[in-house]
Amino acid sequence: MGLKTLIAYGSKHGRTEMWAHKLAECIEGQVDVVDLKKSRDLDIDEYDRVILGSAVYAGRIRKEVLRFVDKYLDKLLYKKVGLFICCMSYDNTVDSLEVTFPQVLIEGAVVKSTFAGEFNLKRLNLFEKLIVKLVEANNELKPIKTDIEGFVAAINKA
Question: CA-based diameter of the chain, in Å?
Fold first, then answer.
């Protein structure tokens, strides 16, 4: 019997969800993908590996992901964990990842990464559209390269 992996994520506009499903296609063994907005009670004891993904807004991960981490932190520390955040642009994406999850979880993670986000103007509310326009006007967007192959290789090796 192969390893069993849980990919749990929090997404606002769908990009983090897309990355979660792309990861699931590449990871060896049985993989369950769960939207933490829709499912709060999970039995993580049945999983060997847990991947947590979240969109980042104003430097914070989604509240449903924070709730999951708070609830299961003690168990997560004994699992092979992968962490990823999904965002548009940061000067230093490693720092962005480091401040979003609890330090003890980051230190124990097998792999951690930042995946590219996307501005889908059709899905943004008026305030979010205004922020996007301001950021674009100030040339603050620096594309993030997503290394999904490296992430998958580290998880499959774990």
Answer: 53
**Residue-number span of the structural domain to which 133 is assigned:** 4-157
The three-state secondary structure class of 100 is coil
Judge if pTM exceeds 0.85. no
Residue 152: which of 46, 25, 30, 1 has the closest Cα? 25
d(CA 70, CA 9): 14
Q: How far is the CA of 103 from the CAs of 69, 77, 90, 109, in angstroms?
A: 12, 11, 20, 10
What's the CATH code of the domain at 144?
A: 3.40.50.360
Q: How many domains does the chain have?
A: 1
DSSP sequence for 31-72: EEEEETTT-----GGG-SEEEEEEEEETTEE-HHHHHHHHHH
- For 68-86, the pLDDT digits (tens) are 999 999 999 999 999 998 8
The candidate with the shortest Cα–Cα distance to 148, out of 36, 30, 16, 60, is: 16
